[in-house]
Design goal:
It contains 17 helices and ten strands. By secondary structure, it is of the alpha/beta class. The longest helix has 27 residues.
Length: 435
């Protein structure tokens, strides 16, 4: 069985490409089915004509396909896997293949396992040690399971992935010095405004990331904090926690000019704040500066907004430099985490290797059962015709022994040279004989 992880992330692809290949949550199940169908097509030239198991992880920082199939592990297969995945993503998202292919990476076998462990542990995130990725990965696995994408290998891989992440977080300080996206957004806003005490803050969305941002900005005691969401009830529940107000997302065009700081992170597949809307807001504000952070992928705010003189727009990639500060405080924890991961990778690969003999063991068990049933049937017939029970038991035991040893004896008899020497050394171990 061949394990593979293929994808792109914040280190290999810009946000404008990542948003094009991101999968909305409600689309993951259909995408997994489409991926399995794509790779399972009859194609004599395909290196991986069968995709046995598949899972998709799609976040603001990465889109990755995890697979377990019957392909080989050579370099040619890896290149073919990247090509096939690039063609699938390009076809699914209606993108040019050439635009996507250079940004993809492929990690086979133990490298795929190591990558999954590192991602879940927060070692491959833009925010080193951030905890949100583990929850996102668990959600991705649940959706893959519901879509029928998980089998023996990926199920075991992800269960061990979650165990490793828990071990890393509980035994190291990998998250102790992390700088979150929310904290970075606060830092950047302080470059625009001397103090946040007189600013009106708008949080668009009601998910986990917006909750973190609301927490960080509320701690700065802004003049007001408002949550805009499509579902008013969710927006009110979040705003109530911070003594803020809630508004409907539909009211945004009429009220955007009221806010000095805007943080947006929704699951919308299209921008919800366009250039024209922001231009009108800036005009209504009489060109008073507006600070905007777009944490969504695909983006919530049209990129052209960044061209406006009085608007300071930052995306998830723009926050990277701020987040990287303080890295030296985390290096010891990283080394400890990497050591844990390496040990667990070797353990998992040992389990994978052991699975290769399962079909052989099953064949041996079936052959042994066939022999047993044949001898048992013979013994029953002897008893029915009145043979002595002791004689029947003797015949049964001799028959089982003779048939069990027939194969090894014949193999040893017909073998020659080195093959006979190898069998002679192996058989005593298999049958625990004394030499």
């Amino acid at each position: 069985m061949h394990l593979l992880a293929v994808g792109l992330n914040h280190t290999t692809a810009p946000v404008d490409l990542r948003e094009k290949v991101a999968f909305p949550t409600e689309d993951i199940g259909r995408a997994i089915a489409a991926a399995r169908a794509w790779f399972g097509r009859e194609d004599a030239n395909a290196a991986h004509a069968y995709l046995g198991e598949a899972a998709l992880l799609s976040t603001c920082n990465r889109t990755e396909l995890y697979a377990a199939n019957r392909g080989g592990g050579g370099l040619g297969d890896i290149e073919a896997s990247i090509d096939s995945t690039a063609h699938f993503l390009a076809d699914y998202h209606k993108l040019p293949y050439a635009q996507l292919r250079p940004f993809l990476y492929a990690l086979p076998q133990d490298n795929a396992v190591r990558h999954a462990f590192r991602v879940a542990s927060g070692l491959d995130s833009m925010v080193l040690g951030e905890p949100q990725i583990l929850g996102q990965m668990k959600d991705a696995v649940r959706m893959a399971d519901a879509a029928g994408g998980l089998g023996t290998y990926l199920h075991q891989l992800f269960q061990r992935t979650f165990a490793v992440a828990k071990e890393v977080r509980s035994t190291t300080e990998i998250g102790a010095h992390s700088v979150s996206m929310a904290a970075a957004a606060v830092r950047l806003s302080e470059r625009i405004f001397d103090t946040l005490a007189g600013q009106n803050v708008l949080c668009i969305g009601a998910g986990e990331m917006i909750e973190l941002c609301a927490t960080h900005f509320a701690a700065q005691n802004p003049k007001s904090l408002t949550v805009a969401n499509r579902t008013m009830e969710r927006g009110q529940a979040l705003a109530h926690r911070f003594n803020g107000q809630a508004m409907r997302l539909a009211d945004l065009p009429a009220r955007l000019h009221e806010f000095d700081i805007v943080i947006s992170c929704t699951a919308s597949s299209l921008p919800i704040i366009g250039l024209g809307l922001v231009e009108r807001a800036v005009k209504a504000r009489r060109h008073k500066p507006m600070f905007m952070v777009d944490l969504a992928v695909p983006r919530d705010i049209e990129s052209e907004v960044s061209r406006l003189d009085d608007v300071f727009l930052y995306t998830v990639d723009d926050l990277g430099a701020v987040i990287q500060s303080g890295m030296e405080n985390r290096q010891a924890a990283v080394a400890q985490a990497e050591s844990i991961i390496e040990t667990r990778v070797q353990s998992f690969m040992h389990w994978v290797d052991s699975r290769t003999v399962v079909p052989l063991i099953q064949d041996l068990q079936e052959s042994g059962e066939t022999l047993r049933l044949a001898e048992l049937d013979r013994a029953r017939k002897m008893l029915l015709r009145g043979d002595d029970a002791e004689a029947v038991l003797e015949a049964l035991s001799r028959g089982l022994t003779a048939k069990f040893l027939h194969g090894p004896q014949q193999a040893l008899h017909h073998a020659q040279g080195d093959e006979r020497a190898r069998l002679a050394a192996l058989l005593p171990q298999l049958f625990r004989t004394k030499r």
